[in-house]
Amino acid sequence: PCFYQGIRTDRNGRVSFRAPLGQSNVMAGGGEYSRFEDKVVVKTRPSRMRILLYRNPEFSGTVRDRSGRAVSGATVAVVPPGNAVRADANGKFHINWREVSKQAYLFARDARRNLAAAVEIKDRTRPINIVLKPALTLAGRITDPNGLPIPVARIQFVARLSGWLAYVGEEIVTDTEG
Length: 178
Prior knowledge:
The protein is built from no helices and twelve strands. It has strands at residues 22-30, 33-42, 58-64, 75-79, 84-86, 92-96, 105-110, 115-120, 128-131, 133-134, 154-161, 164-173. The chain has a five-stranded antiparallel β-sheet with strand order 5-4-7-8-10, with no helix packed on it. A three-stranded mixed β-sheet has the order 6-3-9, with no helix packed on it.
């Protein structure tokens, strides 16, 4: 049997819900807070549980092009796990993420001007400047084994870092010619 409930806390961080007696998995988290997961056994009603969530690490910086100009609207993602934000009008960004590995990278991209960069996060206490450079453009055609085009195939860049797969950038879809 399967029992699932998605519930939000009230403004005091409290929640009340009904669950069947026996073993359950409890997960909590979201937004700027860490993820909590544990197995609990509900023996009596009512049962109470206290969960403490920690604020995720935060990081900030500025995205610039090679001439030093701020790049507004650039996409910045932390990998892993792939949380993304957009730089503001001054190229500034602020991001928090669920730390899943001691090794993390920032991927930044300005799709309008075909610029990109990848930077390892070494010092998490200082803002980082990301300098975008000309990006690689990939073009191709998706076909079946008979060479026929596959329309509406989904394509997205995936970075494999520290044993994690992280989706970076927006997904694109092939046209009628694949």
